[in-house]
Structure formats: structure tokens, C-alpha cells
TrEMBL record:
The chain crosses the membrane at residues 41-61, 98-125, 146-169, 189-219. Keywords: Bacterial flagellum biogenesis, Bacterial flagellum protein export, Cell membrane, Cell projection, Cilium, Flagellum, Membrane, Protein transport, Transmembrane, Transmembrane helix, Transport. The gene is flhB. NCBIfam families: flhB (TIGR00328). Belongs to the type III secretion exporter family. One of its GO terms (biological process) is bacterial-type flagellum assembly. It comes from Paenibacillus piri. It is found in: Cell membrane. This is Flagellar biosynthetic protein FlhB. The keyword Protease does not apply. The keyword Transmembrane helix applies. It is a multi-pass membrane protein. GO terms for cellular component: plasma membrane.
Length: 363
């Protein structure tokens, strides 16, 4: 009973997702568009750099804005009311508006692309746009609404609004003396003051949102890594899919070794001599002067395989010679089916000469 309970506990432990995701699973998740990403980071960058652009291109905005109003009040209001003049007015207003907004639009687009590239790099996938009926599951939708992630997002929003509210309050409170004097100032001074305060608030809030978005990105990264975790069984299953079942592969390798061994043993009866250690090594050699440039190793092995080679040699009346250094050298340097190297020619030639001499006497 205790043994069964232990086995069940181990199976439950194997199913827990405690292991980091494999590169294959990460790649598959990326292809589906599932990446660690904070939607707030690009928005924070856009807000910050948009307000910063007013500081950088303030002269440009002022010039085009003044030109727009100048052309309206000095030129178009004095013209006769006609379809041609009205069309010219709207075309001019559209052109001036585009020239006025072009820097902001360009900065916004570049910042949005940069904010996303900074998080996930270059990614083009249409998988999130596919129609999936699982997204319409009301039960899963209810779970998402009342999940811990929703609570975390709510608390994050409350924290963000609290910090922004405090920044706005502290900034306006610091300008309270100027606010009280606005009633006595001309319209252009009021406009300059309001613009200055708005720009300060925009840059401050943008910086705060960037800092909060970086924390949000770290949180999203943590949640994403947690979601991608795999169990030990998942990793084994993935390995089986990609590399094949290790048990089956080991059986295939074993079968291949047996087949190679069988082919090698079938070549032993063709040998001229078997050189031994005498017990641990055995190398079968053959030399055909008409078809071979040098003697060739037909079979080799150690221990049990060496014993089999010597047994087959004995059954086929092949001469077996004991030469420890030569047997070791041939086994280490020459693969099956290869000719012997030049540095072993002399030693092998002496062995073959002795073999041919013995065979000659026997005949």
C-alpha cells in the first residue's frame, strides 16, 4: 500500500510544471504570437516623446501655427465667398495641418515601433488573427475576468492613477501663486503659462509611466515564464517527438551493431591470418596482391569478440599468430575495411611471409 502511494506521489510530482521551457517550446510560442510583452511600455514612450517633441520643435510648431492663422485672417477672410475660394481654403488648411502634425505623427510611429521591438524584437505572425472558437468560451472568459491577473491589473491601475494624481497635484500646488495671478494677465501670457505647465506635466507623467511600464514588463515576463513552464514528462514527450523514443533508438542501435558484427564475422573465413594479444585482442588480415595495394583489416575486436574471431579462424583453419604490440597497434590505428598504414608494413609483411611459408609447407 505504501509502495503504491509513493508511486502515485512520484507521478504527481512528474506532472508539476517546474522546469523552464525548452527552446523548441519557446519558438513555437513565439510563432503563435505568445511573447512576454507589456502594452503600457509603448504607450508610455509615446506620451513622453510626444511631449518632449514640443520642447524640441516648439519653434517649428509656433511658426506653422502662426502662418495658419495669418493666412486665414489676412487672406481668406477678405476673399469673395465662392466654391473655388472655399475649396482653396480647405486645401490650404489641410496642408498646413499636416505639416503641423507631421513631426508628432512621425515620432509617435517610430516610438511605437521601437517600444515593441525593444520587448520582443522583430516578429511577424498572423496566428493571433485566426478565428478560434475557444476564445468565445464563456466559462473561460469568466475565469479570466475573476483571475488573479485581473486583480493585479486593477491594483496596478489604481497605483498608477494615484501616483499621477499626486504628481499633478504637487505640480499645480507649486504653481499656485501664478494661478492666482492669471486673472490679471493678458491672454497670450495665460496661454504661455498653461502651455508650460502642460508640458511639464506631460514629461513628468511620461517618465513615471515609463518606470511603471518597466516594472509591468518584468511582471509580464515573470508571468510568461511561469505559463511556459513544463513538467518533466512534457520534456520527455517533446524529446520523443523530436529525437525519437530513446528506448526504440537504443534497440535500433543494438540491432545495427549486431548486423555489423554478423557481417564482420562473415568476413573472417576470408582472412589470411589472425593476429592476437593473445586473449584480449584479435585482428583478422587479408592480402590479395592482384586486387589490394596493402593488407586490409577484415575484422577486429576485444575480449568476447576477439574470442569469436579466433574461434571462427580455428574452424576455418586460419593461422593465428600471437604478436601483442602488432595486435594492439592494428586495433588502435586501422578501422575495419581499411588498409594498414605504412608504418606497420614491415611488421605485417614479416607475419604474412611466415604465414605463406607455413601454408607452402602444408601444401
Amino acid at each position: 500500500m505504501e509502495r503504491i502511494r509513493l508511486q502515485l506521489d512520484l507521478q504527481m510530482f512528474a506532472g508539476e510544471k517546474t522546469e523552464p521551457a525548452t527552446p523548441k517550446k519557446r519558438q513555437e510560442s513565439r510563432e503563435k504570437g505568445e511573447v512576454a510583452k507589456s502594452m503600457e511600455l509603448p504607450a508610455a514612450f509615446i506620451l513622453f516623446f510626444a511631449f518632449l517633441s514640443f520642447y524640441l520643435f516648439g519653434g517649428y510648431f509656433k511658426e506653422h501655427l502662426m502662418q495658419l492663422f495669418r493666412s486665414i485672417f489676412n487672406d481668406y477672410l477678405l476673399m469673395n465667398l465662392s466654391m473655388e475660394n472655399v475649396g482653396s481654403l480647405f486645401n490650404q488648411l489641410l496642408l498646413q495641418s499636416l505639416l503641423l502634425l507631421a513631426p508628432i505623427l512621425l515620432i509617435t510611429v517610430i516610438t511605437a515601433i521601437f517600444g515593441n521591438y525593444l520587448q520582443i524584437g522583430f516578429l511577424m505572425t498572423g496566428d493571433p488573427l485566426k478565428m478560434k472558437f475557444s476564445k468565445l468560451n464563456p466559462i473561460q472568459g469568466a475565469k479570466n475576468i475573476f483571475s488573479m491577473r485581473t486583480v493585479a491589473d486593477f491594483l496596478k491601475s489604481v497605483l498608477k492613477m494615484s501616483i499621477i494624481g499626486y504628481v499633478v497635484y504637487s505640480t499645480l500646488w507649486a504653481e499656485k501663486s501664478h494661478l492666482m495671478d492669471l486673472a490679471r494677465l493678458p491672454l497670450d501670457s495665460i496661454f504661455v503659462f498653461a502651455s508650460s505647465v502642460s508640458l511639464k506635466l506631460g514629461v513628468k507623467i511620461g517618465l513615471i509611466l515609463i518606470v511603471l511600464a518597466l516594472f509591468d514588463y518584468m511582471y509580464q515576463k515573470y508571468e510568461f515564464e511561469k505559463k511556459l513552464r513544463m513538467s518533466k514528462q512534457d520534456i520527455k514527450d517533446e524529446y520523443k517527438k523530436t529525437e525519437g523514443d530513446p528506448l526504440i533508438k537504443s534497440k535500433i542501435r543494438e540491432k545495427q551493431r549486431r548486423m555489423a558484427m554478423q557481417r564482420m564475422m562473415q568476413e573472417v573465413p576470408k582472412a589470411d591470418v589472425v593476429i592476437t594479444n593473445p586473449t584480449h585482442y584479435a585482428v583478422a588480415l587479408r592480402y590479395d596482391a592482384q586486387n589490394m595495394q596493402a593488407p586490409t583489416v577484415l575484422a577486429k575486436g576485444t575480449d568476447y569478440i576477439a574470442l569469436k574471431i579466433k574461434q571462427i579462424a580455428k574452424e576455418n583453419r586460419i593461422i593465428t599468430m600471437e604478436n601483442k604490440p602488432l595486435a594492439r597497434a592494428l586495433y588502435a590505428k586501422v578501422d575495419i575495411g581499411e588498409a594498414i598504414p605504412a608504418d606497420l608494413f614491415q611488421a605485417v609483411a614479416e607475419v604474412l611471409a611466415y604465414v605463406y611459408k607455413v601454408k607452402g609447407k602444408a601444401n
